[in-house]
Specification:
183 residues; mainly beta; 8-stranded antiparallel beta barrel; 2 helices; elongated; disordered N terminus
């Protein structure tokens, strides 16, 4: 077995074990499957937690909103072994509501612990308390690769969805994955 083959196999095992450990501790939403974690196209993953603000507040009626988000990534298990963590920020706009929505897009910037940066675009997709933000890095570390932020909303007042003000502030925990395929 060549060292490259051994490295890819060990990476898949490490990613799988990291996801299992984070899932057991409640850090990863159950929407990540073993099959997804074992795909050979995965560069790696990071645990993720963050918070965001919707303007105006989100109700059950999908309407146009602006969404700002920020948070932390880590621990990370990536092909660039100098990356262990990072922080991110971004903003998006689109039509969505508390129960569902699609059609929004945004920009995301990541500052990695090794001093490198990544920037990319993403789309908004949600189904109640779960959200999926798939995207592509356009510059910096991992340029050309796809990423996905999957999270489960863990903080915020869901009853605000039925109020006139709407849900403005939320927090979440999830997983951030990066594809090994350059597009």
């Amino acid at each position: 077995m060549t060292s490259a083959v051994r490295w890819r196999r060990n990476r898949r095992v490490a990613v799988l074990l990291a996801l299992v450990a984070m899932s057991a501790s409640g850090l990863v939403p159950r929407m990540i499957t073993v099959a997804q974690a074992q795909t050979s196209s995965v560069d790696g993953v990071c645990g993720e937690s963050g918070h965001g603000t919707n303007t105006p507040g989100v109700t059950f009626s999908p309407e146009q909103h602006r969404f700002t988000l920020s948070g932390g990534l880590g621990p990370c298990q990536l092909s660039d072994s100098s990356i262990h963590s990072g922080t991110y920020s971004g903003s998006a706009s689109g039509a969505y509501g508390c129960a569902a929505g699609r059609g929004g897009s945004g920009l995301l910037t990541i500052s990695w612990n090794n001093g490198k940066r990544s920037a990319g675009t993403f789309t908004i997709g949600n189904a109640g308390p779960a959200a999926v933000l798939p995207g592509r890095f356009t510059s910096g570390e991992f340029a050309g690769r796809r990423f996905v932020l999957r999270y489960l909303i863990t903080g915020g007042d869901p009853s605000a969805c039925t109020s006139g003000r709407g849900l403005t502030d939320i927090s979440w925990q999830g997983v951030f994955g990066i594809s090994a395929v350059v597009i």
